Amino acid sequence: MIPRNPIKSLLLACLLAATATATADTAKSVEAPVPLLWKVSDHDNAVYLLGSFHLLRPGDYPLSDDVDAAFDDAEQVMFELSPEEMDAGTLSMQMLQAATRTDGSTLEQDLDPDTWTRLQAWAEKNGLPLANFGSFESWFVGLTISIVEMTKQGLDPKLGLDNHFMERARLSGKPTAGLERGQEQIAVLDGMDATEQRQFVAESLEQAEKGSLETERLHQAWRRGDAEGLWTGMAADMKREYPRLYQRINVDRNDAWVPKIEQRLTESTSDDTLVVVGALHLLGEDGVVEKLRARGYTVERVCSACKAE
């Protein structure tokens, strides 16, 4: 969802519990973001699908009237993970346990000499002792690099759209639910093979060296509600270059979510529901939007600021 790197773009959409705090900010935006929002309807109720950006800035709020209206209309809110699980305090520990090496291998052994040298330089530049990373799997190191770089650009996980609506649902007393469990998300990351993990670290470092331009481009595409731009920047390269990883991270999860979302439409006792998930999961032919449309539901883009789809 965030950088150019196609692996990283999707893995960061699975981000669970970043603890870093933004160290920089940019000028506040003056217009509300154009929402990536769709309404899926059957004969008696509706599901709103809202594409999230998991790290945002204060200037990304308030949201558009379309999004506020969808939240007000919904009697229940669903997320990738339930707020109860996110607040349980166990996800970070589960991730650390999954990322900790247990086979006696070292991070330096996993990386080629050039990547190791670049990682040393990055750690020194950011005042992070490289020894702190030695006991962790490469995928966790790559994720850490990305989070550090994004928070330096003023993007804060505490301000992500998911957290925003978890708090709003809590304050309004609306029931919430999750589409999957945290351990399932962790397994997506921990399931990367050695080659994919090395690539993840190398490209995380490459993005860090190039700076914030690509991250900002994707953030602005999200603010514009540019579904095509986000698809191209987030997923198209990965689908082409890393089809197995794309299948595991995106398609398989979407396929598992669609029946759960559809149940909110088919159950006669269900009320309207707002579903907030990473924007990637709604985009392209493999996205939840098209999968529900293929099942015969009426699907329309909700966007007063853009042309109807």
UniProtKB/TrEMBL annotation:
Keyword annotations of the record: Signal
Signal peptide from the UniProt entry: 1-24
Superkingdom of origin: Bacteria
Keyword flag Signal: yes
Record InterPro entries: TraB/PrgY/GumN_fam, YbaP-like
Pfam families named in the record: TraB_PrgY_gumN (PF01963)
Record's protein name: TraB/GumN family protein
Source species of the chain: Pseudoxanthomonas putridarboris
